[in-house]
User: Which sequence fits this backbone?
């Protein structure tokens, strides 16, 4: 059998194998096959391995150039990302991938962190600088680092950087490093704004399409629930409870719920917490330290539900997210793709659930078609269905315990109980004691009557309105302590 990594530089072959790679993705193979001295314009969907692909390109660039002469402290690679989280993700990916590449130290500079601490780290002479456009431009103009030796610039998620209004910063940064030899551009899509940047700053770029729209996340089940705005919070509760009930006992449940604004994240999180769900909010306005603690708690399974805005979740690198819920509808097909791409990663299965306002069905069906997605339309999970899944969860846990060898003391006590009680009565009593209950009572959701597309004159969809109404009186009113405060 041929070695799937034979074409990689020797310095990378061991690292990708040690990381658990079985083969390269299509976009990674295309980068390996490309000439080292070509600009790359990579268009590929979320979850297709673009970050490692560009890391391979960076590694080949560094290996071709060799270590910097005479301990030159000036960086030679600059990578720009739209968000702090994506910058941190890129740094982590490059750190393991470039482990055996000489002179490949990386520093990250982003908003929301100490400028002085970043200046000190930049003063130690990293070879690679990864950062958000605003902070990178600040350091360039203040002289915190010298961009005159930058040979490669990587624009990661260029489409999103333009959406966030970074056009002027990108132009200024690229004009600060006029002697660069290569500019690599990564984007899920190539809209006109990205095309203009490519035409202006790239030379004879090789266009690489790693995966067509809708193909990158084939392990995702897409479900749409048509539900009126008055019942959308109840529908969200039932969707989260059903997903939790289906999760094997002992394995953490991780769900991402997307809403429009920072205020929505706070209001919805508070309401979910009052209803007994382990939820925290994530928005672009969070201080970096709190954001880091929240994500650490989510990764560790101490919180199960993260309520996020599109900006905050861009570049989110958390494995094992089983469920994505579009609490507020996405604005366009790219937003849907990026949201859904938080699940179904690295060969794992995932589910993307869209709470679809009936008056917006025609528009959202068209949006999904543009994203290459054909969802299954289904009713909101009912309380009966959720209760059934919780019973199954209890029984699965019971069968797992029966497969293990019992300890001597419980076994002796079991025999003693059987001496005075009928076996079926005893087992029934123990089952009732061990049955798992959801954190709050599932809701009865009235089925919408608007099941047909409404045509092009639909009204503007309403948001989730998390502030309306309170928790069900049957729910456990226990306010969870913030996951962001769990270490």
Assistant:
């Amino acid at each position: 059998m041929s070695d799937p990594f034979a074409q990689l530089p020797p310095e990378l072959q061991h690292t990708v194998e040690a990381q658990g790679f079985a083969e390269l993705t299509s976009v990674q193979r295309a980068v390996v096959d490309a000439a080292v001295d070509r600009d790359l314009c990579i268009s590929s969907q979320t979850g297709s391995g673009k970050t490692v692909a560009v890391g391979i390109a960076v590694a080949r660039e560094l290996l071709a150039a060799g270590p910097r002469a005479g301990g030159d402290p000036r960086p030679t690679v600059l990578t720009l990302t739209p968000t702090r989280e994506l910058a941190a993700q890129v740094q982590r990916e490059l750190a393991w991938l470039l482990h055996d590449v000489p002179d490949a130290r990386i520093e990250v500079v982003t908003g929301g962190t100490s400028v002085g601490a970043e200046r000190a780290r930049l003063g130690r002479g990293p070879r690679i600088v990864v950062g958000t456009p605003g902070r990178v431009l600040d350091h360039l103009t203040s002289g915190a680092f010298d961009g005159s030796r930058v040979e490669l610039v990587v624009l990661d998620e260029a489409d999103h950087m333009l959406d966030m209004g970074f056009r002027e910063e990108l132009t200024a940064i690229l004009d600060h490093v006029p002697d660069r030899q290569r500019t690599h551009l990564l984007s899920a899509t190539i809209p006109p704004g990205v095309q203009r940047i490519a035409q202006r700053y790239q030379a004879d770029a090789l266009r690489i399409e790693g995966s067509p729209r809708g193909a990158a996340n084939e392990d995702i089940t897409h479900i749409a629930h048509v539900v009126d705005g008055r019942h959308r919070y109840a529908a969200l509760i039932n969707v989260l409870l059903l997903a939790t009930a289906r999760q094997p006992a002992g394995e953490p449940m991780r769900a991402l719920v997307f809403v429009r604004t920072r205020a929505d994240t706070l209001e919805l999180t508070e309401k979910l917490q009052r209803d007994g769900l382990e939820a925290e909010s994530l928005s672009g306005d969070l201080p970096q330290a709190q954001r880091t603690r929240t994500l650490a708690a989510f990764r560790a399974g101490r919180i199960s539900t993260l309520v996020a805005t599109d900006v905050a979740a861009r570049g989110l690198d958390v494995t094992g997210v089983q469920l994505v819920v579009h609490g507020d509808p996405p604005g366009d097909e790219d937003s849907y793709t990026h949201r859904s791409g938080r699940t179904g990663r690295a060969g794992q299965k995932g589910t993307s659930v869209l709470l679809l306002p009936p008056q917006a069905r025609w528009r959202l069906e068209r949006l999904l078609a543009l994203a290459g997605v054909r969802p299954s339309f289904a009713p909101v999970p009912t309380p009966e269905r959720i209760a059934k899944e919780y019973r199954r969860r209890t029984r699965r846990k019971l069968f797992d315990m029966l497969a293990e060898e019992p300890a001597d003391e419980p076994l002796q006590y079991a025999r003693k109980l059987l001496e005075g009680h009928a076996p079926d009565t005893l087992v029934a009593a123990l089952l009732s004691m061990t049955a798992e209950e959801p954190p709050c009572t599932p809701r009865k959701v009235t089925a919408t009557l608007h099941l047909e597309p409404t045509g092009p004159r639909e009204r503007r969809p309403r948001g989730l309105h998390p502030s309306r109404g309170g928790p069900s009186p049957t729910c456990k009113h226990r306010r969870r302590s913030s996951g962001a405060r769990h270490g």
Residues 258 and 326 are 5 Å apart (CA to CA). Confidence is low (pLDDT under 50) at residues 449-463, 465-474, 476-487. The longest strand covers residues 220-226.
